[in-house]
């Protein structure tokens, strides 16, 4: 395998997607729909799902930089374990006493932010803000640790937009919300490492209804070939064994701040009304 073991198979696919044959693109679609979690399948099983021959499958994995399918499957298994505190603990060897130095963590976050800045261009930020501003309704979906980012986004976007909700809503099935989405709507998918397959299913359902998708995810996740999907990727490696989401929160803050700046003077009146109600109803001065 080439010396790029930190690059996920999904990211490798997107790097050469346009150059793939029709059969290879079908196989690529199968792997992307599985979110790269294909290690439980044999090469023949994947080929059958994509309706391609075994030689086509073998050629496909070689084009991605693997010597054979077994090497690709091992790499996929290793990639799937990224973000696991247990795996991170097993890979690191503590030497000596615990170092109570906040500076080491702060410096690591600064490095993460710099790497994320290099990944997310001004053009991507502009496109993301335009999607948020033009959406009739915004639905934010997240699971596990990503929920904290989704809740922050919802809290801030609700100050600027009339129709923002986090899925799943209490006591409701997600399909009920996604079923009513249309071309004027936006699904914001927050999915950091170890994301559940249901996120891919929700994205596909939204796109089938002509909704747009804004994806906030980790650096190893692939972008989508669908022009209706915009992917913003963040570096979430922690200085310890746990992933850190400060970069994702920074990007979220950047998006809502840029959205506010793009909306004009009407924002002041809206915020003044909200603040007055907070004082009268919630007792927040």
Overview in brief:
This protein is an alpha/beta fold and 285 residues long.
Question: What does this protein look like?
Answer:
Residues 7-83 form the HTH rpiR-type domain. This is MurR/RpiR family transcriptional regulator. This protein has 285 residues and is α/β, with parallel strands linked by helices. It has two domains: 9-80, Arc Repressor Mutant, subunit A; 107-282, Rossmann fold, CATH 3.40.50. It contains 13 helices and five strands. The protein has helices at residues 9-16, 22-33, 43-50, 54-63, 69-80, 85-91, 102-119, 122-134, 147-157, 174-178, 198-208, 246-262, 266-282, and strands at residues 138-142, 164-167, 186-191, 212-218, 229-234. Strands 2-1-3-4-5 form a five-stranded parallel beta sheet, with helices on both faces. Helix 9 links the parallel strand 1 (138-142) and strand 2 (164-167). The longest helix has 18 residues, at 102-119.
Largest sheet data:
5 strands, parallel
Query: What Rg, in angstroms, do the CA atoms define?
Result: 21 Å
The SSE order reads HHHHHHHHEHEHEHEEHH
Secondary structure class reads alpha/beta
Instruction: State the end-to-end CA separation.
Output: 60 Å
Low-confidence stretches: none
What CATH first level of the largest domain would be assigned?
Answer: Alpha Beta
Number of extended strands: 5
Strand content: 5-15%
Give the proportion of residues in helices. 40-55%
GO molecular function: carbohydrate derivative binding; DNA binding; DNA-binding transcription factor activity
InterPro entries: Homeodomain-like_sf, HTH_RpiR, RpiR-like, SIS_dom, SIS_dom_sf, WH-like_DNA-bd_sf
GO biological process, one term: carbohydrate derivative metabolic process
Domain HTH rpiR-type: 7-83
